[in-house]
From TrEMBL:
GO biological process, one term: proteolysis
The family this protein is said to belong to: Belongs to the peptidase S10 family.
Signal peptide annotation: 1-24
Gene coding for it: SCPL18_6
Keyword terms, alphabetized: Signal
InterPro entries: AB_hydrolase_fold, Peptidase_S10
Protein name: Serine carboxypeptidase-like 18
UniProt-listed SUPFAM superfamilies: alpha/beta-Hydrolases
Gene3D superfamilies, per the entry: alpha/beta hydrolase
One Pfam family it belongs to: Peptidase_S10
GO molecular function: acyltransferase activity, transferring groups other than amino-acyl groups; serine-type carboxypeptidase activity
Organism: Quercus suber (Cork oak)
Length: 514
């Protein structure tokens, strides 16, 4: 079937070409470290947005590219490369760390990739991340709102030179800090579509993995979360609660500071990305020094928010996230950069996550944006469980819809006690998410399998849960639902009102998913 393209869109494309906007796209047939030709279509290139050259990795769906969704996926940091998502989270390749002793790391095929049923654009963003760079000095400076605006322009420019995907359903995907960016970007797209900006972006929803949502809420919920997960004792928790009066983000007395310090020491050897694992180092030595410098130049207020972070230790190569080191090694091989068609001399050194980018935080709360999006009809998948740093959706007027700590959908509580739980008529419940790299098994093998079993990925979800899986689907967030546990036993989910939510500290969907 021929793609329907409007005359306005053609004019937009012509203007882009005449304006001298630079585009560069090339197919990658082979990659150093992977034997033979790639078993999927990989395109890399640059998209110009003002004075920034954004580098991307596009993987065509291994299913039905013309009909499958288009996912724009970018990582947090801020400053992490799209290779983070490509090689560690949802992409079709991963490093083979077995027996690695040095030299060029080898790659193996990942059969549980989301590219089985989706076209995926992995982006190096913001500027300074991965192989993206600026052509003017002032363009190296980025903010949250500027980055979200640049992403919108990137996506429109990308669609302009890939007209075959203009009509595909579009989804946004991000993790960690980029949880701040995604709702802003979604709102920008909606506003642009309503204003008639072309090409029209067929936005259907977004995916948030352990998202950063609200700085103060996330800080304040860490202590209750640590207590609920039995990481600290009742006595330690009660001392902090009585001394800080629930304000752990900005302690105003010495007793509170001492209580928080004791908690920090108690859990410093536990991974803040996955509380079921010990903390371990995963950055290269040079990146660790950069991280120290970055922490040193943060504001005192930001430091006060950082009570529960593990100490950095060297030599934990037994750790699951040891293979983070391999991306820094692999990405700096000239043969790798040549194969990816990286422009020579534009990036002095590749880092999986560049902590030295010039980035200014100008948004620390996207709860109001989520409120605006509740009427948009967007579909949303949010997952997190074991990441101690991004638990804000448990707190305040943004709540989870589950009793065990897993997110089903964002629910907004109004001042009158009414609870709004509607992003659209679609709901998907998955538990067990931890921040990468421990999250990789969940993202690829659990969430990925769920996605693969649906007809149209996020778009058409059946009313029945997948037998044997820890998940459920729900068409109406306010109606009873049928769930199944691992033994395929049915459970009745119930909807609670705002009063029960507030007094019982339970979620909208009440069920035991163990």
């Amino acid at each position: 079937m021929a793609t329907k393209v409007s005359s306005g869109y053609l004019c937009c494309l012509l203007l882009l070409l005449l304006s001298g906007t630079a585009f560069s796209q090339l197919i990658v047939k082979t990659l150093p470290g992977f034997p033979g030709e790639l078993p999927f279509t990989l395109e890399t290139g640059y998209i110009t947005v003002d004075d920034v050259e954004f580098f991307y990795y596009f993987i065509e769906s291994e299913g039905f590219p013309g009909a499958d969704p288009l996912l724009l996926y970018y990582n947090g940091g801020p400053g992490c490369s799209g290779l983070n998502g490509f090689l560690y989270q949802i992409g079709p390749l991963k490093f083979n760390i077995t027996g690695y002793t040095g030299g060029l790391p080898t790659l193996i095929y990942e059969p549980s990739s989301w590219s089985k049923t989706a076209n995926i654009i992995f982006l190096d963003g913001p500027v300074g991340a991965g192989f993206s760079y600026a052509t003017a000095q002032e363009a190296w400076d980025t903010t949250d709102t500027l980055y979200a605006a640049q992403l919108y322009e990137f996506l429109r420019n990308w669609l302009s030179i890939h007209p075959n995907f203009v009509n595909n359903p579009v989804y946004l995907g991000s993790d960690s800090y980029a949880g701040i960016i995604t709702p802003i970007l979604a709102q920008n797209i909606i506003n642009g579509n309503e204003a008639g900006v072309e090409p029209f972006v067929n936005l259907k929803g977004f995916v948030l993995s352990c998202p950063h949502t609200n700085t103060d809420l996330e800080t304040n919920v860490k202590i209750p979360f640590a207590h609920r997960m039995a990481l600290i004792s009742d006595t330690m928790y009660d001392t902090a609660k009585d001394s800080c009066h629930g304000n752990y983000a900005d302690p105003d007395n010495s007793n509170c500071t001492e209580a928080l310090s004791a908690i920090s020491q108690c859990i410093e050897l536990i991974s803040d990305q996955n509380i079921l694992e010990p903390a371990c180092a995963f950055l290269s030595p040079k990146a660790k020094e950069m991280a120290k410098e970055e922490r040193a130049r943060r504001s005192l207020r930001e430091k006060s928010n950082n009570f529960i972070l593990p100490s950095t230790r060297i030599g934990d190569f037994w750790c699951k996230n040891f293979d983070y080191l391999l991306s820094d090694i692999w990405g700096n091989y000239k043969s790798v950069q040549d194969a990816l068609h990286v422009r020579p001399g534009t990036v002095k050194q590749f880092f999986r996550c560049n902590v030295t980018i010039e980035y200014t935080v100008d948004t620390d709360d996207v709860v109001p944006v989520h409120k605006n999006l509740t009427a948009s009809g967007l579909q949303i998948l949010v997952f997190r469980d074991l990441d101690i740093r991004h638990q804000s959706i448990n707190a305040g007027n943004v709540m989870i819809c589950s009793t065990d700590g897993s997110i089903i959908i964002l629910c907004i509580a109004k001042n009158n006690g009414e609870v709004i739980c509607q992003y659209g008529d679609w709901l998907k419940a998955i538990r067990g998410g931890a921040r990468s790299p421990p999250r990789r098994k969940f993202v690829r093998e659990e969430a990925g399998v769920n996605v693969d079993r649906q007809t149209n990925w996020f778009g058409q979800v059946s009313n029945e849960p997948v037998n044997g899986d820890d998940n459920a689907t729900l068409q109406n967030p306010r109606a009873p639902v049928q769930l199944r546990d691992k033994g395929n036993n049915e459970k009745q989910g119930t909807v609670l009102d705002g009063a029960n939510m507030a007094t019982e500290n339970k979620g909208i969907l009440e069920t035991n998913m163990e």
